[in-house]
Amino acid sequence: MSAGTRETAWRVFSSELNTASYEIKAEAEKMPSYQLSRLGAMINRVLIAGVLTEKENVGSPEEPLWRGRIQDVASGTVYINIGRYQPEAAAAMVDIEPPCLVAVVGKVKSYTTEDQRTYVSVRPERIIPIDENTQREWLLDTARSTWKRLVDMKTAMGTIDKSVTGLTKEGFSELSAKGISLALEQYGMPDSAMFLKSIQAALRTLLPDKNVDLGLPEDLSENPEEIDLEPQSSGDDSEDKEEIVLELLTELDTEGKGAPRDDLERRAEQEGISSMELEEITNTLMDKGVIYEPNLRYLKRI
Fold this sequence. Notes:
Order of helices and strands: EHEEEEEEHEEHHHHHEHHEE
Shape: globular
Oligomer: single chain
Radius of gyration: 20 Å
Distance between the termini: 18 Å
Low-confidence stretches: 220-236
């Protein structure tokens, strides 16, 4: 991806994010770096939702440096750090009191100690309070995307040629092929039980009366029996929703400086597009070079 292009915000559970210990270094100045997940996701930015369980200003009142912990319900804790270069998130943290459901969009960073332990955290660009319905949407979206990465990884492990070229020939996108091939090279075959456990926990939260059981042992020190991972159709209507968002951007840009984010979110909700779906759609449109951000408050068509 070229310099200045907005990176997609991945939906990942903490189990996948916190074990993404390998960093793909930026190839040039102002180019992005990535944390490589064990399922092949090349992660620069994430969208996380969960309970902010604690926060602390380890800086000063004049120059705050916020640290916090977010429990994602399904698998564990995500750590966040907010400093002077995240002014919108820093301002929001002043008024958010734990425990509180929040959504965070931010860059992923890692730190490796002298004994080669890698710790992953998120530097939020935005952090906002959310309701339970929004959290449930995130859990469902993240469970689906994690499942897809598991299916893709299993498919890749069944191929003879696991190089980027080989996987591309098998129908993988160039991005997926690169991530999966490198993940297999760096980590080897992933322990699917850990990620299935996160999906199971998410589904149990979403369907508390269904007693969801994927056949996983409570103690994951023993590997479960092989579980059949079959791709499932999602009935995705993302292209239609992209068109709706583009039409709204044109309609709301009444002064030539772009569509106000608040108005766009309100109108999108009226069209059946949730705030989290809107975030994903606008990120995708920016990746395609169709829209851009004149500033944090506006989005504009190119």
